[in-house]
Amino acid sequence: MKREERQQSIINLLIEHKSIDLDDLADRFAVSKMTIHRDLDDLEQAGVLRKIRGGATIDAGMQFESDFRIRERQGNEAKVSMARRALELVEPGMTVMVNDGSMAAVLGEMLLQKRPLTLITNNAAIIERLKNESGITLIALGGIYSPKFNAFLGVVTEEALFRLRADIAFISTPAVSGTLAYHMDDNVVRAKRAMIASASKACLLVNHQRIGHTALHVMADLSAFEAIITDSTPEPAAAAQLERANINLIIASD
């Protein structure tokens, strides 16, 4: 197993169990304890775990999971499937808004397939990837840079969005419960709300594992979105509640 694959597996184990044992990792991957030490050092330096005596841990809860550095390493297959379905809502010539987040970053790169486009975003990963691409009129939203979200946020971002209009906005969220979408950070919430308000229509992207969860702030009612795209069918109770509310739920895996 390559180092990158082993480190990804370590992250997946941490996400599932919240803490891991160094000896167990060495046995699991059939490598030396020193090799695991180096892996944990790399991941700690990247800010995605905290080494402790005999292993490593992460801080439980949404605060940790919201960090772009951990999210960009999670669930790439699900992100790609959702992005492909979202791409079906885009036509060449549109003006498209894409928000912060690792899910949105995957979609941002796929939008090259639909050029020419005008793309409005505060997502630093998208800005860096698309800044030299032909056929993309890139409007990069300014503001205060947040390493945690790898995005530009704050009053400057919101004021810029107030003066722009888009055909569609793609909004990602880490939590949906009932008919509400949530987020843990108030600056991110305000930026997402500003995008929704500045677009003719909006589409919400959420991993099915996050349906049935809440976070600190209510971001929006699901009725604000023309469609909700998720990677797989959510739990039956949650799916039934969305159906009763006449929410247009699109399952990317279908």
TrEMBL record:
UniProt KW keywords: DNA-binding, Transcription, Transcription regulation
Gene3D superfamilies xref list: Winged helix-like DNA-binding domain superfamily/Winged helix DNA-binding domain
Single annotated GO MF: DNA binding
InterPro entries tied to this protein: Carb_Metab_HTH_regulators, DeoR-like_C, DeoR_HTH, NagB/RpiA_transferase-like, Tscrpt_reg_HTH_DeoR_CS, WH-like_DNA-bd_sf, WH_DNA-bd_sf
SUPFAM superfamilies associated with the record: NagB/RpiA/CoA transferase-like, Winged helix' DNA-binding domain
Keyword Transcription: yes
Keyword Transcription assigned: yes
Superkingdom in the source lineage: Bacteria
Location of the HTH deoR-type domain: 3-58
Protein name: DeoR/GlpR family transcriptional regulator of sugar metabolism
